[in-house]
Write a structure and sequence with these properties.
The structure is a single chain. This protein has 12 helices and 15 strands. It has helices at 10-30, 37-50, 62-72, 90-97, 116-119, 142-149, 204-213, 235-244, 248-265, 293-302, 332-340, 351-369, and strands spanning 55-59, 80-83, 101-104, 127-133, 155-159, 167-168, 171-172, 179-183, 197-201, 218-220, 223-224, 271-272, 279-280, 286-289, 341-344. It has a 7-stranded mixed beta sheet, sandwiched between helices. The protein has a 3-stranded antiparallel beta sheet with strand order 7-6-13, with no helix packed on it. Strands 12-14-15 form a 3-stranded antiparallel beta sheet. Helix 2 (37-50) packs parallel to helix 8 and helix 3 (62-72) packs across helix 7. Bound molecules: pyridoxal-5'-phosphate (PLP). Pyridoxal-5'-phosphate (PLP) binds next to helix 3 and helix 4.
């Protein structure tokens, strides 16, 4: 029996290698290595992918995409940004990079997404933005969030780092909020071969502001019209992304197919993290839940099946965020999920045979644990 890793880009790379090599050689021969035609092309192409009237700014990472959007919106010290602690740390790093204060809303225990029923109690006159995290490729109900915020001057940023290709009511993740942030970290649904990220919005002036922020606040060379940072998408990564973008929908379809096999094959007594109503999930991760998580994980490892935990430590309980003053019990659903979640192998090239191997291993392991 061969081992099944939780993620592997090797097979996909071997298929794309000639096109990637050509694209990289073209960049090296072009004399333009940073913010050149590849980035401009990718920004247009990704905007067109997201839908009509979307503008994009390529940046160095998903973390930076969130931070640059916040800076572009003028969010800074004294401002509060509400998000969840059941996310990748970078969501919170970005809020701090902008100088703002993160505020955590607990998540729904079944979906793991922000519990909109609890949001209101976290809103204050200092709240400027809600960052809705589309965790695992599932989606927060952005129209419901918008209705809840009503006429308050609070913007919605979608954290789409795990949700390329997900949709809600037929509209793609990243096209529903005031702005959205994408990551192209290699493991994401659309991954570069290094770091990359992108800010998107229908607000052309916000994206124009983000383009200043990503390059020291320059509008033209050597003069900052505002303060900025250095966060550029480089031509090499943009060239890779231009090769890969046309494949994204096909890859997401394969992820959905794999999720379907898992769904059918896994015993019903093994709980799944639930999908929000109306969402066509992009399955960046396929996540199950059990109180026997650590035992199940060890049993699968013994059979060569790789798994992940997203995420083992709720952010509010990490030493780096002790200063927020929250403790065990502050966000009970977030804490419970951190103890129970387990991510099964998921990548487009996994294929039916390996998916069946995972299913068989999980069934066997569960029987052994009871
Ligand atoms: C990966 C990720 C990010 C950050 O992206 P980087 O490109 O690694 O900086 C932000 N939010 C979520 C939910 C992520 O999964």
């Amino acid at each position: 029996m061969t081992a099944v890793p939780v993620f592997d880009y090797g097979e996909q790379y071997r298929e794309l290698a000639p096109a990637v090599a050509q694209a990289m050689a073209d960049v090296l021969g072009s004399g333009q290595l940073v913010l050149g035609p590849q980035v401009a092309h990718f920004e247009r192409a990704f905007g067109a992918y997201l839908g009509e009237g979307m503008f994009c700014a390529g940046v160095n990472s998903g973390t930076d995409a969130l931070a640059v959007l916040l800076m572009g919106m003028g969010v800074g010290p004294g401002d509060e940004v509400v998000t969840v602690a059941n996310t990748a740390v970078p969501t919170v790093s970005a809020i701090r990079m902008a100088g703002a204060t993160p505020v955590f809303c607990d998540v729904d225990r079944d979906t793991g997404l922000m519990d909109l029923g609890q949001l209101e109690s976290h809103l204050t006159p200092a709240t400027r933005v809600v960052i809705a995290v589309h965790l695992f490729g599932n989606m927060v109900d952005i129209p419901a969030l918008r209705r809840l915020l009503g006429s308050r001057p609070i913007k919605i940023i979608e954290d789409c780092a795990q949700a390329h290709g997900a949709s809600l009511g037929g509209r793609l993740a990243g096209s529903l909020g005031d702005a959205s942030a994408f990551s192209f970290y290699p493991t994401k649904n659309l991954g570069a071969y290094g770091d990359g990220g992108l800010c998107a919005s229908t607000d052309a002036s916000l994206i124009a502001e983000c383009k200043k922020v990503r390059m020291y606040g320059f509008e033209q060379s050597y003069c900052s019209v505002r303060e900025g940072i250095n966060s550029r998408l480089d031509e090499m990564q943009a060239a890779v992304l231009n090769v890969k973008l046309p494949h994204l929908d096909g890859w997401v379809a394969k992820r959905r197919e794999i999720a379907g096999w898992y769904e059918q094959g896994l015993p019903t007594r093994l709980k799944r993290v639930q999908t929000n109503a109306g969402v066509d999930h992009a399955y960046h991760l396929y996540v199950v839940r059990t109180q026997q998580r650590d035992n199940l994980r060890a049993a699968l490892a013994a059979k060569g099946i790789g798994t992940g935990i997203h995420y083992p430590y709720p952010i509010h309980l990490m030493p780096g965020y002790e200063w927020m003053g929250l403790r065990e019990g502050s966000l009970p659903n977030t804490e419970q999920l951190a103890r129970e979640v387990l991510s099964l192998p998921m990548y487009p090239e996994l294929g039916r045979e390996r998916a069946q191997q995972v299913v068989a291993a999980v069934c066997g392991a569960l029987d052994g644990l009871e």
